[in-house]
Design brief:
This protein has 204 residues and is mainly alpha-helical. The protein folds into 2 domains: 140 residues; 36 residues. It is built from 7 helices and no strands. α2 runs antiparallel to α5 and α3 runs antiparallel to α4. The N and C termini lie far apart (51 Å). One of its GO terms (biological process) is DNA-templated transcription termination. Pfam families: Hemerythrin, Rho_N. This is Hemerythrin HHE cation binding domain protein.
Length: 204
């Protein structure tokens, strides 16, 4: 179904791959295509981690897969942000682009061959449609609040936290520093709560 979660996620994947192919075949496209790809990947990843991976862990019983996928997201996001700071005409950029594309494509293949089928088998069509709506809404909010950064290190405006307490990514990093277990399958609200509890324990 075109409006269910699996269709929405795979549509994003195909668009990312289209942008990757464009940047590899036409260097002049990079100043525009790279910021679009980075923004799209980060919005897609955050929406999955906030709305989809908790369902994968709890409803499909694939907690380890969800945690592994979230870790791959963070690796890919870091590589993408690094590319934004590089000279897009350099050979170093070419090598870094290949590494980034390889990491994302590997993740896409795992997600489409393992994670999404497992979720599809575990829940019904109605649940997939509901998850699709949640994913789309979360993704749209992220894109609406994220300024595009030009390739080569120019930034129109600083990235702002989405809410008090920081973005999900910032909360995730804090949870990692505090040793919060199961953090990869938590949404933003759950991360904020577990970080608060861990900080309280440290202060006792």
């Amino acid at each position: 179904m075109a409006n269910d979660l699996i269709a929405m996620v795979t549509t994003d994947h195909r668009e990312l791959q289209r942008l990757f192919d464009m940047m590899k075949s036409d260097k002049s496209s990079r100043p525009l295509a790279l910021p679009l790809a980075v923004a799209m990947l980060e919005a897609h990843s955050e929406a999955e981690e906030d709305r989809v991976y908790p369902a994968v862990a709890r409803e499909a019983g694939e907690k380890e897969e969800a945690e592994h996928a979230a870790e791959e997201h963070h690796q890919a996001e870091s590589l993408g942000r690094h590319l934004l700071e590089m000279d897009w005409e350099s050979e170093e950029f070419d090598r870094a682009l290949e590494e980034w594309v390889g990491a994302v494509v590997h993740h896409i293949e795992e997600e489409e061959n393992e994670i999404l089928p497992a979720l599809g088998e575990a829940v019904g069509d109605d649940r997939l449609r509901a998850l699709g709506l949640e994913f789309a809404a979360r993704r749209s909010r992220k894109l609406a609040g994220r300024p595009l950064e030009a390739a080569g290190g120019d930034t129109d405006t600083e990235r702002q936290p989405e809410a008090e307490g920081g973005t999900r990514e910032e909360l995730y990093e804090k949870a990692r520093e505090l040793g919060v277990e199961g953090r990869s399958s938590m949404n933003k609200e759950e991360l904020a709560e577990e970080v608060r509890k861990a900080q309280d324990r440290e202060n006792d």
